[in-house]
Amino acid sequence: MSAKHKARKRFGQNFLTDQKIIDQIIATIAPKHDDNILEIGPGQGAMTLPLLERVDKLSVIEIDRDLIEILESHNKSNLVIHQGDALNFDLDQFNPPIRVVGNLPYNISSPILFHLLENRDKVIDMTFMLQKEVVERMSATHGSKIYGRLSVMMQAFFEVELIFVVPPESFDPAPKVDSAIVYLTPLKVCKVDNIEIFEQVVKAAFAHRRKTLRNCLKSLLTQDQTQVDLSQRAEMLDIDTFITLAKDYEKQH
Ligand code: SAM
What we know:
- This protein is α/β, with parallel strands linked by helices.
- The chain is built from nine helices and nine strands.
- It is 30% helix and 20% strand.
- The chain has helices spanning 19-29, 48-52, 65-72, 109-118, 132-139, 149-155, 195-205, 213-216, 239-251, and strands at 15-16, 37-40, 58-62, 79-83, 98-103, 123-131, 158-166, 171-172, 179-186.
- The chain binds S-adenosylmethionine.
- S-adenosylmethionine binds at residues 11-16, 40-43, 46-47, 61-64, 67, 85-87, 103, 105, 108.
């Protein structure tokens, strides 16, 4: 890490220092020179600089002004820097469709994922470093203890693939937990009609993991309004069954 910059915890700053891991991430992204890539949280440029060698143009969004100064000091003509909060950015300003990449700040990784979920039609694919535990939840299948709202929301819209695990020593400062690279591609055929309704049903279903769906969905749906057996718990339902539940709820509107 540069002597000039002290990592800021509140911005989730853990800088990648392991060249082998950086090379593996770049190989996973497999950038082509004319790709339209947006990097979230470039930091001091661990992934940015190797990407810049491979693409005609790279856009980045970074919240920390001190890091922007460091990035600017590289004088890269093909780097377009935006200072701001990745949670609020309007993807249209990056001329979609885009490929999104980033070693995401762990404290806000879920809100960033949900922001991108709402903008999925503008995205070609996404390659992210996240806490391993989060990637495991994103890719968990029904029946497992870690299958929950994040698994259903992600898998209903994306193909989710854990690519490889990254140990804490690959960063400075080292995080307390393992990380993992996840690769996400929007599903070609998405069966969800109404994302707000779907999200409402999924959120309610997992609000009390130990309770049955009959209990959790009490204010939304009763057993006579759906073929889905509501005596089960949410974690037993696959993605398609959640889609059915949301459709049955929508019919009541
Ligand atoms: N990409 C660099 C690397 O791999 O070494 C830095 C990764 S670090 C885990 C996360 C980066 O995201 C930091 O540079 C941090 O300042 C930035 N960041 C944190 N919150 C952000 C936000 N809301 N919007 C944009 N960038 C943010």
